[in-house]
Design goal:
Length: 252
């Protein structure tokens, strides 16, 4: 067996490996305490970049889903208003046909006209007040989802008025039906979009989790191994230093 006096290579080697094991032990502690494998860029810079990009995608898709749900809520308000207006217009149509009966006198038609005017006023109020977050939905302005003369004049007091009443009412009913159809199609597209984005969001979140989250079972095993190796390294370094001390005593 050879002994070295000027240098202690065994101790230096043991200390080097001890430092490496302490580094691994420190990383395992950091992983287990934070639950993340990417707490620092130094651990895995490329994976951290990808994980952050996935996180940004997940957040963006989440907001897009919220926006789509808001749009569905807005269209539902508009469709509800149009449904009520449609019911009123159908009632006005029935009253107009009633007023055209030859048995109706002027007094009867005046009563019918009053009822029609009330229904038109209600329809106009619905169109004016249907809004979402301050955006008018049925008044024909910017952001409106439907256009129509919902509070226009319907005259059943004269023969000429009766002749044009049904044509006017049928035209409004057609526009209402078209608007409701467009809103329904838009809702279906939004629902489909939400479903697609939800699946993409789940997949992106899963991919991020696989890259970022710690496998606690695996990392616990790594921690135990690193801790044991660190203890062995400490003992080995101590033994190497002790051996060097014993050699020096030979010269005393």
């Amino acid at each position: 067996m050879s002994f070295s006096v000027n240098s202690n290579t065994a101790a230096a080697t043991a200390n080097f490996h001890l430092n490496q094991q302490n580094k691994s032990l420190g990383e395992s502690i950091a992983f287990l305490s934070s639950g993340s494998k990417l707490g620092q860029a130094a651990y895995d810079a490329s994976s951290l970049t990808i994980a952050n990009q996935l996180s940004s995608q997940v957040s963006g898709m989440g907001q897009s889903i919220m926006n789509a749900n808001d749009s569905i809520g807005m269209s539902q308000i508009a469709e509800s208003g149009l449904s009520s207006i449609n019911d009123n217009m159908e009632q006005i149509r029935t009253l107009s046909i009633k007023a055209s009966s030859p048995i109706m006198n002027a007094s009867n038609r005046a009563s019918i006209q009053k009822e029609i005017n009330g229904l038109l006023e209600v329809s106009g109020s619905i169109a004016s007040n249907s809004s979402f977050n301050g955006v008018k939905l049925l008044d024909g302005g910017s952001g409106s989802l439907a256009n129509g003369n919902f509070s226009g004049s319907i005259d059943v007091m004269s023969e000429d008025g009766l002749a044009s009443a049904l044509e006017t009412i049928d035209g409004e009913l057609g526009r209402i039906g078209g608007s409701r159809s467009d809103i329904g199609a838009s809702q279906n597209q939004l629902v489909s979009s939400i479903q697609s984005m939800s699946v993409s969001k789940i997949n992106a979140a899963s991919a991020e989790s696989q890259m970022r989250d710690v496998d606690f079972a695996k990392e616990s095993a790594n921690f135990s191994a690193a801790n044991l190796q660190s203890q062995i390294g400490s003992f080995t370094a101590a033994q190497a230093n002790a051996q060097a001390s014993n050699v020096m005593r030979l010269f005393q």
